[in-house]
Design a protein that fits this description.
Blueprint: E1 8-14, H1 20-34, H2 41-58, E2 63-70, E3 73-80, H3 104-111, E4 114-122, E5 125-138
Antiparallel strand pairs: 1-2, 2-3, 3-5, 4-5
Helix pairs in contact: 1-2, 2-3
Length: 140
């Protein structure tokens, strides 16, 4: 009989520093290796890199990485204080072939098993900011 892994989550607050996305990638590698989920490291790191880089480029304050297992699925999220949703979150925007930016959310859509954005609300009170999250796949 298969067992279901219990839910867990890790949150790492990151300063608005150009090294923070790299620290986030290293954290994902360590967390997933510790939980025996090494096969999910490449996808989780790629998706986290996109979300962390967006937070770094488009917000002016700290942000946070969340890595969590819920209902047997690995999810990675990035929280920031900005209420604005990223351009292209609601519908895919066209990108010129020679553009240096604008493909990140397309990559997120293509490499994740699901994704979304959640306003940070607790007990009906808006706490500020948003959490962009991706589903990296089933575990076990």
């Amino acid at each position: 009989m298969a067992t279901v892994s219990p839910s867990w989550n890790y949150t790492l607050r990151l300063p608005r520093d150009p090294r923070s996305p790299g620290v986030g990638r290293a954290t994902i590698r360590a967390v997933l290796a510790a939980h025996g989920l090494s096969e999910l490291i490449p996808t989780a790191q790629l998706l986290a890199t996109e979300l962390l880089t967006n937070a770094h480029l488009h917000t002016s304050q700290e942000y946070a990485l969340r890595v969590f297992l819920v209902d047997g699925r690995l999810k990675v999220g990035v929280w920031d204080r900005d209420r604005r949703l990223p351009a292209g979150i609601e519908k895919e925007l066209p990108v010129e072939d020679d553009a240096e930016r604008g493909r990140g959310l397309r990559l997120v859509r293509g490499c994740s098993e699901g994704w979304g954005v959640s306003a940070m609300v607790e007990s009906g009170v808006y706490l500020g900011g948003k959490l962009l999250w991706v589903d990296c796949g089933a575990v076990g």
